[in-house]
Amino acid sequence: MSALAGDPHAAGGSSVLGGAPAGERPRVLVLGGGLAGIVAALDCAEAGAEVALLEVRRRLGGAAYSFERDGLTLDNGQHVFLRCCRAYRALLARLGSERLTTMQPRLRIPVLSPGGRPALLRRGALPAPFHLAGALARYPHLRPARRLGAARAALALARLDPNDPALEARTLGSWLAGYGQDAAAVAALWDLVALPTMNVRAAEASLALAAFVFQTGLLASNDAGDIGFHDAGLGEILDRPARHALRAAGVQVRLGWRAQRLERDAGGFRAHGLEAAGASCERAHAVVVALPHQRAAALLEGLLAPTARALRALPSSPIVNLHVLFDRRVCEQPFAAGVGTPVQYLFDRSRAAGAPPGCQYLAVSLSGADAEMKLSVAQLRERYLPAIAQLLPQARTARVERFVVTREHAATFRAAPGVAALRPAALTAVPGLVLAGAYTDTGWPATLEGAALSGHAAAREVARALGLRRDGAGARTGSTATPRAGAAAQEALAR
Residue 150 burial (CB < 10 Å; 0-12/13-18/19+)? Predict the structure, then answer.
């Protein structure tokens, strides 16, 4: 493994740092209060470090948050998870938030189409991958010949090696074409998984990442793809419980602190930032940079220029969410997918948002939303309200009380071919400087699970560098994800 991929002995570094005087706990700074930063801070504190978490926002949770609008508590996006997301589910349990979530007893996805009868994709009791055979055989949105091709593709997908470099050069869509899956079949079936997990359509998605997603979530175990939902707002599930858990663990939490510059000297690191009181400088023996990848790139420029260049080259993909409050109930499903419509997924969030009695609040999630990002609120309303009415007949006579749009310009990294080479490992060439975030090389796409796994990986590297006990630093997740370092491309960027 090269220095740029994170050899602890590279560039004259060592695996154990000095710094903390005898009898004094080593100090760790965690820059960023998203899921990765929360997990890293908890693990580092559990391993025996003195930890400070610094976050620019006035809340924790990063890209998963709630906000108030006209008396409603809205989530910025509809974040679901799967039964196989062990690290994220462990975090919920650690925060005491598991009681505010619901897990499907068995995978069940209602599929709506304009003017058509609702279809249902659900798993059976057979072992994987045959647990999906019945649903596929009856799926009305694929012609019989396409269903057979889809079954053959699923079996072949289960046999692919996600770590095969050749897969990283192809898209899922081009590979599916070899199994008779035309554009209509891809949109009706494969995009139902590709869009919410990778934030791009199958036509653009890396085959390597797609193979990992389908194998891990659907094809390896018959219950892995059961869907988990947040029954309350993300602020209630993540922000407030995380503040309590961090403070209970002895972590100093400082909100409203913007990281500006990071330096290293003989004693460790100095992080320069701004807060309400003015300029601030924090010292530590180790630093976890758990910021979004573009912000991390700016902070790392002086210490890890090749990594900073790789992160700047890492493309992003947007997500748009539409929040629609109807004056009556228009949808009987708690959530549903759409086929043959611009509506990708819709969720009934009335209870979590505190919708007025008799009203129903639906959230429409649009992943890979490059086109929607360019539309005004009026244009989105003009396009999507009729589309919702085509799927939900009761919406045709209902009055729309509110229509709110939220946009995440850089919601995730773009899971396109070649992206693996740009994802850095947690460990860097600078001893004591560690990266965390869903963009790092966890093996997962940018998901809640990937963020949690990255926090555990970062804490393990900090524990190793500082000579701390490592039993508390992420050992509880039991993840089987296999990271791929992306060293060759970062070396090329360095040259």
Answer: buried
**Could you tell me the residue range of the domain that residue 378 belongs to?**
66-102+228-233+316-413
Mean pLDDT for 405-412 is 96
pLDDT tens digits for range 413-436: 999 999 999 999 999 999 999 999
476 or 76, higher pLDDT? 76
* Cβ neighbours around 152 below 10 Å, total: 14
pLDDT category of residue 472 using cuts at 50, 70 and 90: low
Closest to 438 (Cα-Cα) out of 44, 151, 40: 40
Q: Do 129 and 220 sit in the same domain of this protein?
A: yes
Share in percent of the chain as helix, strand, coil (round to 5): 35, 25, 40
pLDDT at 267: 87
Closest CA to 154 of 171, 126, 131, 120: 131
Q: Is residue 45 part of a domain?
A: yes
78 domain residue, yes or no: yes
Number of domains in the chain: 3
Q: Are residues 129 and 169 in the same domain?
A: yes
> Residue 390: helix, strand or coil by DSSP?
helix
Q: Are residues 362 and 433 in the same domain?
A: no
Rounded distance between C-alpha atoms, residue 305 and residue 297, angstroms: 8
pLDDT at 276: 87
Binned at pLDDT 50, 70 and 90, residue 113 comes out as very high
**CA-to-CA distance for 45 and 284, rounded, in angstroms?**
14
Distance CA 362, CA 347 (A): 5
pLDDT in tens, 266-288: 889 999 999 988 999 999 999 99
Tell me the residue type at 20.
A
In whole angstroms, what is the distance from residue 380 CA to residue 321 CA? Answer: 10
For residue 115, pLDDT beyond 60: yes
Residues 30 and 161 in one domain: no
The two most distant CA atoms of the chain are separated, in Å, by 73
Nearest to 426 by CA among 461, 476, 464, 465: 461
Bridge partners, residue 451, by sequence: none
Angle between helical axes of 293-300 and 305-313 (0-180°, round to 10): 150
CA 348 – CA 334 distance, rounded (Å): 5
**Shared-domain flag, residues 210 and 343:** no
Q: Are 270 and 262 in contact (CB under 8 A)?
A: yes
Q: Is residue 243 part of a domain?
A: no
Tell which wins on pLDDT, 479 or 242: 242
The structure tokens listed for 190 are 């494969």
CA distance 387 to 77: 20
Distance CA 225, CA 34 (A): 24
Which H or E run contains 35?
A: helix 35-46
- CA quadruple 413, 226, 240, 76: dihedral positive or negative? positive
Count of residues for the chain? 495
**Mean pLDDT score, 21-39:** 90
